[in-house]
């Protein structure tokens, strides 16, 4: 059983930075890709970034490309999302997901999710 626990959310002004963490139990990194999604009130969960299971490939949503960076520390079984130049439209609950056997941008493909961490960007 895989468990994911996110942390690092908070309130930040536009232009600021936050780093989210997702601590994973079990040996997930070598088996599955790790991804970040977000969900704003009244909207569907949307893809943000993914890191391949070998840690060599990354993909980002166009809306965050150049501002966000996904990475991992295999010794700590933790994946990170460094978020820079934050905008009010980045405000959402951010979720860590894993367990997708194919594809990466559709949340329906993921079997495991954390509880989410709130990110609020003020203008």
Which properties best describe this structure?
single chain, mainly beta, seven-stranded mixed beta sheet, four-stranded antiparallel beta sheet
Tell me about this structure.
This protein is mainly β and 123 residues long. The chain has strands at residues 4-7, 10-13, 18-24, 34-39, 46-51, 58-60, 68-73, 78-83, 92-98, 112-113, 117-122. Strands 2, 4, 5, 6, 9, 10 and 11 form a seven-stranded mixed sheet that branches. Strands 1-3-8-7 form a four-stranded antiparallel sheet, with no helix packed on it. The protein starts with a strand and ends with a strand. The model has no long low-confidence stretch (mean pLDDT 95).
SSE topology:
Blueprint: E1 4-7, E2 10-13, E3 18-24, E4 34-39, E5 46-51, E6 58-60, E7 68-73, E8 78-83, E9 92-98, E10 112-113, E11 117-122
Parallel strand pairs: 2-11
Antiparallel strand pairs: 1-3, 3-8, 4-5, 4-9, 5-6, 7-8, 9-10, 9-11
Task: Report a brief summary of the structure.
This protein is mostly beta strands and 123 residues long.
